[in-house]
Design brief:
The protein is an all-alpha fold. The protein has one domain. It is built from 3 helices and no strands. It is elongated and about 45 Å long. This is Transmembrane protein.
Length: 99
């Protein structure tokens, strides 16, 4: 693994570790803004989990483009990251019984 890839991995892992904090603030914002009254339970969990995934994916994309990685490589890595992170956050919210 070259130095640029190690830096990308470190930054992406840091962002993934911050995602539960983003999830907490997303749920708090959606709850206090009253959006939770308009969304049924599972849809609220999905929207709450999707917001941190989009933030982490966007920041990861910017880091990967900064180090000039090829678009195909970025697409493959971000797809895996987004699916894994969405599933993990969705299960976390389901286990906590947010709804």
């Amino acid at each position: 693994m070259d130095e640029e890839s190690a830096i990308i991995v470190a930054i992406v892992v840091f962002l993934v570790l911050l995602s539960p904090i983003l999830l907490y603030w997303t749920v708090a914002f959606l709850d206090t803004s009253g959006i939770d009254r308009h969304l049924p339970g599972t849809l609220f969990i999905a929207v709450s989990a999707l917001v941190p995934v989009l933030i982490v994916s966007l920041l990861s994309f910017l880091v990967m483009r900064h180090y000039n990685k090829p678009p195909g490589w970025i697409r493959k890595k971000l797809a895996f990251l987004a699916v894994f992170l969405f599933a993990a956050l969705f299960m976390l919210l389901s286990m906590l019984g947010v709804v």
